[in-house]
Amino acid sequence: MTGTTPPILQADDLVRRYRLRQGLFHRPTMVHAVNGLSLRLARGETLGLVGESGCGKSTTGRLLIGLDRPDAGTVCFGGKALPAMGDIRWRRLRMRIQMVFQDPLAALDPRLTIGAQIAEPLEIHRLGSRSEREGRVEALLADVGLRTDHLRRYPHELSGGQRQRAVLARALATDPDLIVCDEPVSALDVSIQAQVINLLRDLQARRHMAMIFISHDLRVVRLISNRIAVMYLGAIVEEGASEAVLLDPLHPYSRALVSAVPRPGRRRSRTILQGDPPDPAARPGGCAFHPRCPVALPLCARFAPELRPAPDGRRVACHLIGDHGGELNKEA
Ligand code: SF4
Q1: Which residue's CA is minimally distant from atom 5 of ligand 1?
Q2: ABC transporter domain: which residues (predicted)?
Q3: Radius of gyration of the chain from Cα atoms?
């Protein structure tokens, strides 16, 4: 985030746990979906939230826009605490915060035309006269690269890429300040993914919106993000400018993720992580990454590292990075 500009979005120490019963005769287990997560987002900035499936990215996205309530911690939007869902203030605020999900077919109503669905938020928030709304819908359609004849079509008559464009047009209808995109291109063909990413990048720059871009795919995240936050088991383990995180990842988990991304013309030895993929219902003690970490020390199983300042304005949660070194010497 730049300088002293107040953030449009600020989350502090978010915690979200669920009880999960895996069978009729099993005791419920506690799933730690989000575990003490804090972040800031400036106006006009895009933060990529990346990590494996089950790391809590989607739950974080829902907490940030108030679709889910944290068990602890706070979310502030525009300097004010996010009101509870259903509260009249939350409904008003929803005009300024929108979310785009992975599956555009599930996000659209099969019984309504595309035109009716793009107009819906304008009608709900009573924005403009009927003719103004019609004009706005046509302008939005052009903005996302759809034609006016798409207005009268139903979702099943559009391709996957066109449906995601329609979802974007609907999300942009109220001119939001913040848009949270949860895996918005992972259900699309690779060639269409690039088109939708370019569109999102272009729209975000023109409208100066803040954006949280959630994805398991670092290749996609790097195309659009100013900053990247790498998540592991409900917490951010490294956060910083995209270039710094991608060119010189500091946390061992970020290093493994980055090493798996093919880079044309460059050879990088890939780090294959050992052990089981992260399970939020069986969160290890100490550093949650220690069972898979190739450079773990004995103390990593006992003490959880905090997210602390590191080189290049980054924050990293690892006993081996930044001022954790002092802690290490004390504990050794
Ligand atoms: Fe690996 Fe220890 Fe750092 Fe965790 S704290 S990432 S286990 S070295």
Answers
A1: 318
A2: 9-258
A3: 21
